[in-house]
Amino acid sequence: MVRKLSLILMIVFALAVAVSAQVVINEVVYDPVGDEASGEWVELYNAGGSSVDLSGWQLTDQDGHTYDFPSGSSISAGGYLVVHTGAGTDTSTDLYAGFTAGIWNNDGDEVLLEDNSDAGIDYIQYSGGSGDLPPSGLTWSGDISGTSEGNSLALIPDGNDQDNATNWIPRSGTDITPGSANKAQPNPTVTVTIAYPTGKTYVSTCEQAQATITVTNNDPAAPISDVSVKATLPSDFYYVSDDGGGTYDAGTHTVTWNAGQIEAADSWSVNLVFKPSCAAQSDQHISADATWAAYPGGASEAVTTVNSEPIDVEPVALSITKLVYNQTAGETEVDAVGTTSAAHGDSVVFVIQVTNVGKGDAVDGADLADVLGSGLSFTSLTDENGDAVTYTGSGTSTDPYTWNTGQIDHDTAKKYYLTATVISCEELTNQASYTWGCGDCSTSGSASASIALILKEPDVSYTVSPNPIAIDYCSGSTVTVTVTNGDPANPDPNVGTAHGFTLTMDGLPSDYQVTNVQGASYSSGVFTVGDIAANTQTQFSFKLSLKSGACSPQESGTLLFTPYYENDCGKAYFPPVTLDSFSLVGQPSISISKTGERAVDVSETNISYTLSVHYEGPDNQTLTIVDDYPDASDTANGWGNFTVADSAGGTNDGDKITWTQTFNNGDDWSKTIKLNAPTDPCAGGNTYTNRLSISPTSINDCNSCTIPINDSGSFEIYVNNNYEEAITDHNKTVTYSNINSNGVHIDANSAEDCTDIQYTTSVTFNTGTAAPQTWSGIVFRDDMNGGQTYVSLDSVTVNGTNYMSAVSVTNTSGYLEIDLSGLDGTTAPKPNSGATLKITYTLHAPEGSEGSFIDWSHLTVPGFSVGTCDVSEGTYDQGIDVSIGESSLGLSLSGPQIIDK
Fold it and tell me: 368 has which bridge partners?
């Protein structure tokens, strides 16, 4: 029974404590305006659902001032009870402690509520109270911040006792509510204002503007806490920056800020920089909202979303045009068109214009890109003020010229002038494009202009001088080439530049060289001049000479000059081709020659021979000139004993005549000597050599070569036995046929091989016993020298009557032999009647018989000896000089040497 009673008492006590614990200190005025005792008070609030008896409870400060609640005092459920420090009449809602002075320290204190068993019910500490620990059973943390004179400290919301200082806030004025519910803080005010760019009432697309978002704490006494602000931009606006450390969410187009705590009657603001996109709509809003709490960690409150004023966004609309005009042709901008005509080398100007036809301003300008065709060479880029434009790039499709226009206000334009030179025949288009925009949006456009090429062909002619070219053996010779393009005197506007002019010279033998080239470069037979402008003339020269040590050069030939050049479009030209002959002149040489009678008679005297030397070589050269004439020691039989009748000033030693002469270049030397023929008839029928020579024979010329000696000084003399005992006259003639076997006329002064030669030998006999009385045994023979062959016996006449049928041709192989014995059986006069015998016959010069030789014939007369070589049958010899050349075919071709393709 006792145990049951005790348990019941314990439950009743616990319930009483639980009910008491719902009574809290709810609001305090510790520093009233005016009298402290009458103005101070502490408000209690019963958060429970039933009334609480306060009899014997106590309210105490840190200094031990205690107020004992009178018996019978209570606080109703959800009710308020105010304990005043000073004196007054107690009521059910107001109790007066009766202190004459204030007890709650202005500089910090503690408030302790205990029940009638001294158990702690509630405890607070404000403004740096003593810091004593609350009584056993109670907890506390923090320190309620002090407030201004006349304000209260209020628990927000009523009864929200957390045993810490967090949810206590100051209240002022009408917000101080003793005996009634604590007044909540008013919502802060949020505003969004738009600042347009300076001087404008609008913002352009892709232009920055500013929104200022302000949050104002409308509570005059208490701060607001945990303030969070969010701004929402239109989906076609870009966030640029802000000065409040906001966080931008591109997905939601929102910016959020943690504003933290805003003090009483204070505000927080942030500047948000935004930019409408290039396609942004006008009359949209930037909205803002905020959340806040009455104290840190308190319940979050939301402020109704507010919008800015409608934002006036004006669009940018750009367009681009490009025109061109020919500056060289005298055109100006007013003549500019989409395509203009120009020639190679002309200067053309492309006019690029970007116009803003929108109502907004392209504040960052447009980016321009210009691609210049490869047939155009960039000169300059200027703006409409003539100032040079700073650009990047090289003008190709992969690296165009690029620059920014700078701001283009609405209804205005930017203009640029790109000057270029036409350098080719293709790729003559210039294209410009622009891009403008911001962020992930942009607009673009392009325009182009082009050149219609005026093709001017070159008109090249040239001369090579001299023509023909005489190349001096020692010093060489200068050749001048004059190249003319068009007409310098009367310029032809339709003539174009000859590009890359070269002149190739073919046919120069390897013994020659090209040196001292002026006005061109030279390599491997090619002279390079370069470009020749229209209606101009240029010259270049060079020296042609022998290479040192070229001792057997080709002395003449033909040089072929082939030009090459291109027109403005790279088309190759080759004409006109020119032939120019060359010859080597002034070659050092020594020529020796001897002229005179080749056929002499036995015992003939004072036979004249002219000796000549022509000298071309170094000056002051001494030569020894020797004429070795035939004498008895030069012939095996001693018959060829020529003697000197006149040595022409030379020294005669019985074998040769010698002269010593000093020569300078170009000198001639000539002497005429006279010789006497051998007197012995046995000398007849023989050939004797007379030799003219000089020494020394090795003389070096200007080219380190031995001067050649053109030696025609060897002279063959043949001796005829024209008369002796049996005959009084003996001669021989030759007639060359003027038609060869091909029926072609030839020179009658010589024969060609494969032609016929006719000979006539004439003999006049002595009379009486000094000549034979009959023709018996008289034989005629021709040696057919030079490989000749027999053709025919044409006539045999005695005193003009032909008796050919009476004679016999007894041999034609290797020599011709005719037996004249048959004449005795005719009416032909006998030899000793002083008869004249003429034998005419034809021989053939076979192929390969070329040369000069003596054709010998012999008449054998029995019983009549000849000279010291006396034999029973006398032989009378007669020779004649015969010349046979190689058979030739004459061919001529007329017409131009060179024709164009």
Answer: 403, 434
